[in-house]
Design a protein that fits this description.
112 residues; alpha/beta; 5-stranded mixed beta sheet; STAS_dom_sf; MlaB-like_STAS
Length: 112
């Protein structure tokens, strides 16, 4: 099990959270908390970088949905970038790829 770290930073589109390690039932609440603290202003994006995500269980997916819902309620959007192949497959199988904004990288957001 890889420990979870979440790092917040500013990006042209708004704010970014880099999620590194394993996102599971023991720490999913940390992602929700980090997203609430890093909430971008209305009209901006919360970018969640999953390029270094090692593992994600159902609690992690639930946290991602909660983060997205919180962002939308605040007038922002959440974008997942660099989603690992196994996670993309899971999101596709559950239909969440139709709900979550998934992009390959940050570059398309630079002009947002």
């Amino acid at each position: 099990m890889k420990p979870l770290t979440i790092t917040a930073s500013h990006v042209p589109a708004g704010l970014a959270l880099e999620v590194v390690g394993d996102l599971d039932y023991t720490n999913a609440q940390r992602l929700r908390h980090a997203a609430q603290e890093a909430a971008p202003p209305p009209g901006r994006s919360l970018v969640v970088d999953l390029s270094e995500l090692g593992f994600c269980d159902s609690s992690g997916i639930t946290a991602l949905i909660a983060v997205r819902n919180h962002a939308v309620a605040a007038g922002s959007e959440m974008v997942l970038v660099a989603v690992p192949a196994n996670m993309r497959r899971l999101l596709r199988m559950t239909g969440l790829d139709q709900v979550l904004d998934i992009r390959d990288d940050l570059h398309p957001l630079a002009g947002d």
